[in-house]
Amino acid sequence: MQGTRFAPDRGLATRMVSTMFFIGLLYVVFVGVLMVLLRGAWPMVLVLAGGLFVAQFWFSDRIAAFSMGAREVTPEQAPELHGAVDRLCALADMPKPRVAIADSDVPNAFATGRSRKSSVVCATTGLLRRLEPEELEGVLAHELSHVAHRDVAVMTIASFLGVLAGLITRIGLWGGFRRVGGRDSNTAIVMMLIPLVSAVVYAISFLLTRMLSRYRELSADRSAALLTGRPSALASALTKVTGQMARIPTRDLRQAEPFNAFYFAPAFSKDGLGRLLSSHPTLEQRLEQLGRISAELGRG
């Protein structure tokens, strides 16, 4: 990645550009359709869409960190965590992000932020308690790779359209849009079309973000393994975290599930058709890739 020592990934860059292009195109079409359907309310549509987009872009890192229970910690409060991040940032030649801890027994970590300067890397108390130092560094290198490659910001923006579609649908059905155009048959048709269009937009944006999410996790594993030179430590962390998930109460896993796309490992593993909708590749795929990297480093 330009500006850091993380290994560049052209496949990830291509997928991020493609996802943003199609998401942007979908966004324009969505707003355009709403303006046509709600002719008398087009100023409201533009103000709502623009306002939500700006709010999501500028405050997404704070919203995500707050939602996941992250609290920023100082080097005095978490010396080992800060020490690991300091070593990895020096190794990667990148600015140090803010460091946070989430009080949760679910062993996981995540990174969020619209840019490198505003990024936050967070580990849960459950992760810190269960991993060895080398394993923890592997996980943190994985999260720092997301920051270095800027795919965290892309995921945040890409997931915005689905949120917007749902909000506008609720406002359209229960808010002032129902009063636009009177109570004739055309209004009734419009009220039926709005949730249909929103559902289609949400489904397409959901699939696009899921495809990008699965690839970016493999890319982050690869970059972290090459940076640290210890793919086996990351593989051990993956195996340990995934195995420990089965011991976490289902209620806690359900609370973490909405944030799966940002986590190091998903709260729930899916089989069959569910894998197509999963935010992460399977454990087997991730371990297989790390095994290949280990073999390549051994030959080198």
| Helix coverage percent | 55-70%
Oligomeric category: single chain
Number of strands: 4
The gross shape turns out to be elongated
> Which strand-content bin applies to the residues?
5-15%
Distance between the termini: 21 Å
Radius of gyration of CA atoms, rounded to a whole number: 21 Å
List the helices and strands and how they pair.
Layout: H1 10-37, H2 42-67, E1 70-72, H3 79-92, E2 98-102, E3 109-112, E4 120-124, H4 125-130, H5 133-149, H6 151-158, H7 160-174, H8 185-228, H9 231-245, H10 250-256, H11 283-299
Helix pairs in contact: 1-2, 1-6, 1-8, 3-5, 5-8, 5-9, 7-8, 8-9, 8-11, 9-11
Structure write-up:
It comes from Streptomyces morookaense. Its main location: membrane. Its cofactor is Zn(2+). The chain has 300 residues and is mainly alpha-helical. The chain has one domain (10-299). The chain contains eleven helices and four strands. It is elongated.
Short characterization:
It contains 11 helices and 4 strands. It is mostly helical and 300 residues long. It is an enzyme of class 3 (hydrolase).
Pick out its properties.
300 residues; mainly alpha; 11 helices; 4 strands; 6% strand; elongated
